[in-house]
């Protein structure tokens, strides 16, 4: 209970695989990450969305689409065949205090074809 590194570790980790055609028109929304409160319970006061890793070429951006949802946006066309992975995270806060982090690894497989 007193371990800071344990408290800051992701509460959930998920893996997602997307296949895309070569040279997909940009910007394109590829993935959405959101939270929902269980019935009878309040959700977090605040959410922060970001890219945690795998975006060294600046191909993606993460932006908020509403109060509880963040979107991973492809901002540069990808020519296939290639594979790219990006880690996105959502952090929950209550009264400005960190509560939990959720991480999703999105693995994109780009086809050599435009269809």
Automatic annotation (TrEMBL):
Residues annotated as domain Fibulin C-terminal Ig-like: 12-112
UniProt-listed InterPro entries: Fibulin_C (IPR055088)
Keyword presence, Repeat: yes
Protein name: Fibulin-7
Annotated keywords: Repeat
Name of the encoding gene: FBLN7
């Amino acid at each position: 209970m007193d371990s800071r590194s344990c408290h800051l570790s992701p509460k959930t980790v998920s893996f997602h695989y997307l296949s895309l055609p070569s040279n997909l028109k940009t910007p394109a929304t590829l993935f959405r990450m959101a939270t929902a409160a269980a019935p009878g319970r309040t959700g977090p006061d605040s959410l922060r969305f970001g890219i945690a890793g795998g975006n060294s070429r600046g191909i993606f951006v993460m932006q908020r689409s509403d109060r509880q949802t963040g979107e991973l946006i492809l901002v540069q066309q990808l020519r296939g065949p290639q594979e790219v992975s990006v880690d996105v995270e959502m952090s929950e806060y209550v009264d400005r205090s960190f509560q939990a982090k959720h991480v999703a690894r999105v693995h994109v497989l780009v086809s050599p074809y435009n269809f």
